[in-house]
Amino acid sequence: MKNAGLSVVEVAQKKPLWKMTALRRFDLFSRRIFEIFEEYEHYKKERPNLIVDDHLLITYPFAIYLFANKLNAELASTIEAGLRTAYKSGEIQELLLKKLGKNHGLY
Questions:
Q1: Which site among 39, 53, 69, 102 is 20 to 30 Å from 33 CA-CA?
Q2: 40-56: per-residue pLDDT in tens?
Q3: In sequence order, which residues have a C-beta less than 8 Å from that of residue 53 and are 6 or more positions away?
Q4: What is the number of other CB atoms lying within 10 angstroms of the CB of residue 13?
C-alpha cells in the first residue's frame, strides 16, 4: 500500500483498528478476505457505522504459514505437495469462493 502512494499507519494490534476507524481516525483498514466477514460479524453491533466495502478489492501476494514438527519432515513434505497440487488445480481458490463468496455475495 505504501508503494502505491497510500498513507499507511502501522499498529501493533488489530483490535483497536475497529474503534479508530469508527472514530474516523482512518478511512479504512484492510483485512484478508477470509478474515473480514467473521471479524465484521463480531464487531458490527459495537461499531454499527462500519461496513465491509463490496466495491473495493485490493489484491497483493501474502504468505500463509503452516508449521510441522521438525522431526516430521515427511508430514511437512506431504502438506506442501498437497497444497501445491490443490493450488495448481484451482481447488484452493474454489474452496475460498465456496466458503466466502456464496455467503457474502462475492460472486
A1: 69
A2: 999 999 999 999 988 88
A3: 28
A4: 6
Q: What is the SS3 assignment for the chain?
A: CCCCCCCCCCCCCCHHHHHHHHCCCCCCCCCCHHHHHHHHHHHCCCCCCCCCCCCCCCCCCCCCCCCCCCCCHHHHHHHHHHHHHHHHHCHHHHHHHHHHHHHHCCC
Distance CA 83, CA 64 (A): 11
39/26 Cα distance (integer angstroms): 18
pLDDT at site 37: 85
Place of cell 460479524: 41
What size, in residues, is the chain?
A: 107
84's grid cell: 501445491
Please tell me the pTM assigned to this model.
0.62
d(CA 79, CA 68): 9
